[in-house]
Amino acid sequence: MLEYAFMQNALLVSVLISLMCPMIGMFLVLCRYSMIGDTLAHASLAGVAVGLLVKVNPIISAFAVTSVFAVLIEVLRQRFRRYAELILVIILSLSVGIAITIISSGMVHTNVEAFLFGSILTVTPDDVLAVAVLCVVSLAAVYLLYPQLVMLAFDEDGAKIAGVKTRLINYIFALLVAAMVAVSIRVVGILVISSLIALPVAAALQLGKGFKVTMLAAMVLSFIAKWLIPVIFASRELRCVLPWWLAVCGVVFAGAVAIAAAWMPARKATLISPNEAIRSE
């Protein structure tokens, strides 16, 4: 099966995105900001619509529009710190309104369904290269900014007092999230990106281990639950693997919660919070 070029591309992209999404999602979940993935995914739909309208590469236009919305979210979050979730709703509604207006106007004649559901089995070498470049950039950024990002994830005010350039780092991280969403929409689809970011991390948090162990576990769970099993089964008939992703991911998360409850009877039927799960190493 791996002798086919499309399966090689699918497997390579699986590994890369399985590394990238939980790595970035780890910090988003700990900041209680995991829904930004869903918001920017809808913003990318507006970017795709704009690109198809002006006849520009939809991925490039999606990155441009998503980056604008990501920076706007960060600007508004700094201004309205107590209403962060409201900002996400506002941006999501605005971006969906723009996308639907353009698509329903009749000026776009291309089917956008491929961007909604994605198709990992039809990725091209250019898609693989784009994901690989972003993965390298993300790994480098997290490696260089790791202490600052950890401080921001747990106590942004404390990080600011300690001299961390919180605003600059938040803007850089927002652009990383925007880029991740933009390059992933053709592969995984707009409807699945938020689950790629949040669910593997939520399952790994149930282990109750340290930060690095939890991040590594999230990457492994992401690859197994969302990529390896679905790709193997879906490759037989080349169907959309979206149902496989969601079903297997839900089962993995439920299993993680059940195992955690069995190990820690005092916390049965209770999700382990990030503060409990990420102990100092």
Characterise this structure.
- This protein has 281 residues and is an all-alpha fold.
- It has helices at 5-30, 36-54, 58-79, 84-104, 113-117, 125-154, 156-161, 166-188, 193-205, 211-234, 242-263, 274-277.
- The longest helix has 30 residues, at 125-154.
- The radius of gyration is 19 Å and the shape is globular.
- Taking all Cα atoms into account, the compactness measure Rg is 19 Å
Proportion in helices: over 70%
Number of contiguous helices: 12
Main sheet makeup: none
- What letter string, H or E per element, gives the SSE order? HHHHHHHHHHHH
- SS class: mainly alpha
pLDDT < 50 stretches: 267-273, 276-280
Average per-residue pLDDT, rounded, comes to: 78
Q: Quaternary arrangement of the chains shown?
A: single chain
The fraction of residues assigned to DSSP E strands is under 5%
Choose one word for the global shape.
globular
Quote the distance from N terminus to C terminus.
42 Å
Number of DSSP strands?
0
Summary of the model, kept short:
With 281 residues, the protein is an all-alpha fold. It has helices spanning 5-30, 36-54, 58-79, 84-104, 113-117, 125-154, 156-161, 166-188, 193-205, 211-234, 242-263, 274-277. α3 runs antiparallel to α4 and α6 (125-154) runs antiparallel to α8 (166-188).
